[in-house]
Automatic annotation (TrEMBL):
Family of this protein: Belongs to the purine/pyrimidine phosphoribosyltransferase family. PyrE subfamily.
One GO MF term: magnesium ion binding
Xref: InterPro entries: OPRT (IPR023031), Orotate_PRibTrfase_bac (IPR006273), PRTase-like (IPR029057), PRTase_dom (IPR000836)
Binding residues annotated for orotate, in chain numbering: 117, 145
Pathway the protein takes part in: Pyrimidine metabolism; UMP biosynthesis via de novo pathway; UMP from orotate: step 1/2
EC nos: 2.4.2.10
Span of domain Phosphoribosyltransferase: 46-163
SUPFAM superfamilies attached to this UniProt entry: PRTase-like
Listed name of the protein: Orotate phosphoribosyltransferase
Domain of life: Bacteria
Sites where the protein binds 5-phospho-alpha-D-ribose 1-diphosphate: 113-121
Keywords of the record: Glycosyltransferase, Magnesium, Pyrimidine biosynthesis, Transferase
GO biological process, alphabetically ordered: 'de novo' UMP biosynthetic process; pyrimidine nucleobase biosynthetic process
Length: 186
């Protein structure tokens, strides 16, 4: 699957938004990748996740992704790899494992996500898994828009890397024209 084909899928799904956005990290940006628009099509999700899975060389006991964006990616990855798929959720802002989900001691874990900007959300999952006794083998994401400026302790494997501007709120040129909108849940 060529990079242009992947980008075309995102474009045709209307997942590549332009405007003035407030991101999870508190940063601002003129572009937002609304992965939900891609992931709403099961066949497209199957194809993209299969392409991501081809890049994975590790052996995993389970896959974990943060809600909301990581839930569908984790589920489809777990389905394709034949392993359980868990998701984490925030409780009062803190990433947690709920619903009696458990990570067995020394379980080899693949962490997945739809999109990363700072990688902060995924690192929270990594920390949670390690604290629970799991071993992080890989981190894999559909879209890496970090430009390499992420906080992740291991380099993420990605389907596509996008070069996107982000601004600190104090230094955002778009704020002169408009208020940012917040498409995500945080
Ligand atoms: O790399 P980061 O700087 O942490 O940003 C990326 C995070 O932001 C989005 O989720 P969001 O918090 O908007 O929640 P949602 O998936 O529930 O909409 C996305 O799914 C990642 O989790
Ligand atoms: O950083 C984010 O919050 C973010 C950026 C983006 O392009 N898409 C998304 O879902 N979240």
């Amino acid at each position: 699957m060529k990079m242009e084909e992947i980008i075309t899928i995102f474009q045709e799904s209307n997942a590549l938004l332009e405007g003035h956005f407030l991101l999870t990290s508190g940063k601002h940006s003129n572009r937002y990748i609304q992965c939900a628009q891609v992931l709403k099509e099961p066949k497209v999700t199957e194809k993209l996740v299969s392409h991501l899975a081809k890049q994975l060389e590790g052996k995993y006991d389970l896959v974990v992704g943060p809600a909301m964006g990581g839930v569908i990616v984790a589920y489809e990855m777990g389905r394709q790899l034949g392993i359980p798929a868990l998701f984490t959720e925030r409780e009062k802002g803190e990433m947690t494992l709920r619903r009696n989900f458990e990570i067995p001691t020394d379980a080899r874990v693949l962490v997945v996500e739809d999109v990363i900007t700072t990688g902060g959300s995924v690192q929270e999952v990594v920390d949670l898994v390690k604290k629970a006794g799991g071993i992080i083998v890989d981190v894999a994401v559909l879209v890496d828009r970090s430009g390499g400026n992420h906080v992740l302790e291991i380099p993420p494997i990605s389907l596509v890397k996008l070069e996107v501007e982000t601004y600190s709120p104090d230094d955002c040129p778009l704020c002169k024209e408009s208020q940012p909108v917040k498409p995500g849940s945080r």
